[in-house]
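question for whoever is on the cluster today: can someone run the full assembly for these? two chains, 875 residues total. i dont have access anymore since they changed the login thing
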Amino acid sequence: MSETTADAHGAHDHHEGGFWSTYVFSLDHKMIARQFLWLGLIMMVVGGILALIFRWQLAWPETQVWGFEWISDESEGMPEGYVTPNFYNMAVTMHATIMVFLVVMPILVGCFGNFLIPLMIGARDMAFPVLNMLSFWVAVLGAVIMTAGFFVEGGHAASGWTGYAPLSTVPEYTGVFMGQTLWALSLFVLSFSSLMGSINYITTLINMRTEGMTWFRVPLVVWSLFVTAILGLLALPILGSAGAMMIFDRVFETNFFNPAKGGEPLLWQHLFWYFGHPEVYILILPGMGIASELLPVFCRKPIFGYRAMVYAMLAIAFLSWIVWGHHMFQSGMNPALGSAFMMTTLVIAIPSAIKTFNWLGTLWGGSIRFTVPMLHALAFVILFVIGGLSGIFMASNVVDIYIHDTYFIVAHFHYVIFGGSVFALFGGIQYWFPKMFGRAMDEALGKVHFWLTFIFFNMVFFPMHILGVGGHMRRIYNPMQYEFLQGMQPINVMITLSALALGLSQIPFVFNFFATVFRWNAKWFRVLIQAVSALVVGFIGYKSVAVMFEGMMEPEPSTGARIAGTVVAVALAVWIYRYLEKSMAPLGADAPQNPWDANTLEWVAPTPAPHGNFGPTLPVVRRGPYEYSVPGEEADWAPQTETIDPKYAEAGH
Amino acid sequence: MMSWLPENISIEGEEIDFLFYVSYYLTVVVFIGVAVAMAYFIIKYRAKPGVKAKYTHGNNTLEILWTVIPTFILLVFILMTQTSWAKLKLAIPQNPHVRVEVTGKQFNWIIRYPGDDGKFGTKDDLVLDNQLNVPVNKQVLISLKGADVIHSFFIPQTRMKQDVVPGRTIPLWFTPTKVGKYEIPCAELCGFGHSGMNGEMIVHSEADYAKWRKKAWEEKDK
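^ ran it for u. tokens below:
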């Protein structure tokens, strides 16, 4: 870190910007991080509602979706709340597109990458603050284009988030015109946003680590974001190019992908998955990083196998480029390639296994504190294990013949992306919230949110393995059209009921988030939070009992079931209400500088961190990031700026 | 969980089921191991007053062990799989008993049977929509073609699935072992009619198959 840059920033410390330069076109990495967080959370609501709409259709095909009956019967998509097949395909497509590109990437990479990298390596900001700002606003432009697709004639893209050609490139095959073009254009624009972010992260990390912050003292979450940025730098241009080629095929009548005119449909799949598999790791690596960060803090113990963790991530980054063919085992690609891709795919399972064992090693001998971030980190580990193990089935090209394109795949990637990335995301938000917003989210509300989400996540996605084993195809509009699937319809109903519960389970989080950010701690508001959370749990309890009595397929519960359900519902509601009444701390109270007793540099910075992050001088790093419970030291933690007994100085390396 | 698998009715499907079971037991054992260890650690090492965490940065022997052992297991798994893969995908049968050509076209399977000359594209071909007739215990070789977008030909009970790509002819073969009717859904999103794109495979006994052939060609010539 050069002193001149530090001085230049130092001069800005007391510079009060106006509204526009502070909140809108901010150059401060922390503000840009918060902007990405808002973008991601808002889009998460859109993506989640789309999921609930198509889940409704799967459980109760061709009935009016509750809450959407008011739509005019002239609507193309949902006349009077009935889901049409094209709307169903669109909902499936856009749920995935939004969740991947406008929720998980903006939050895990955009928000945490921006917020954590400068703070944790002791830098005053990103290397290129203007590029950083552009990266956010280009992402917003991408989000606007993506959202615009919902309002054009013919509806939004409906060819799956993978956009397989020629379904996606010849408008007549879907009846979708502008929508699919806007989809491709949006991905093209979003790829630039990610590219700008990646360049910034990489440059910052290489050049701006503070004195003493050697590569092997860099926290693992920052390592994970570094590796993610490298993948982004190399992968996103491929997506951008593929998107551009799709636009050319659709608008300028080129024929890259249209076989009717000499094009090659598999070329799209190769391009998409050559981007797509590194993309999978872009989504999960930051999650792994967050888990690796939270586990040592709440085990009060150094991370197990720091270097193994770093090498495993580097191995994943390299191998992720040579596994894409496992998405294409049944695509018509030369089957001899299938053998090669199966081998590389199972090789990439090894670094993931190493990481899992090291997380277990970190738990071993710890002194575990079960805070909300820790609960999320633990959930991450076990859910990632399930997602990783189910991957073995489809990595085997032979087994994949049967389970390809079934719900087994859907179960697998939701365990990785929701069970992995999204749980890490919630854990990360709760953990860094005090530094991000200067106040801590409430632990009691966080626990209610965590347990509801954990239970219903599993109830939604675990049974999908069973559907997949039964042969249930992905992306079908109405499973009742198939005799061999009709016997499994109760599972579909259960999944949808659980999905609705999973949606409701996010209410405590929303309350927690807003109440903390805006310091809404009035008595009536606290009562409202308690009452609504209790109602959510009570309602879920009532429905669960009704289903247990009557089975999945019976819409009207009997009197006995109603009474039992009411008793359970009241008991649960009272329990939650009283628990929150007793345990909720004052919402939005100022957080201490280092609420978790953590070592890393972001907790050395004042709360809230000012522009420039650290005081007049930058911190100097004298120990590794995870030196917890060092023998001979009184406290079980010490900031990275403290010297360490030379006896242990090398142990961390 | 594996009891949810539909009944397998093809010789080739046995290979897939066997590896499915291998994957299942392998992953279940690993999962139970990890889950038990994790639960044990979580309970045993919960924060207790006065107890400090162990100060350790790892253990190289362990790192090597948990790298080498999974590598070895996965290597065996890869080797077990590859012979099956070659049998199922690379060794195209030279003398199949029945040849059929199936074309995926939004939103139907168009099924073409050769006449007595055994050749496709001649006058005596029989073309049916969504109905695949095959004899039991005989190997069937299907040539898959696409007319518009990508579809995926799937018969759950034979465990067979293969994407159908316009511009290519892709072989798929299996030997049904049980008389009956089975569905042929499309497994790859192919447009608004994707759901419900569903054919029927009728597996006849040998005598019935001969009868069906006779009758079908008679009707065609009418």
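summary bc i know u wont read the tokens: Chain A touches chain B through 100 residues (CB under 8 Å). DSSP finds 21 helices and no strands in chain A.
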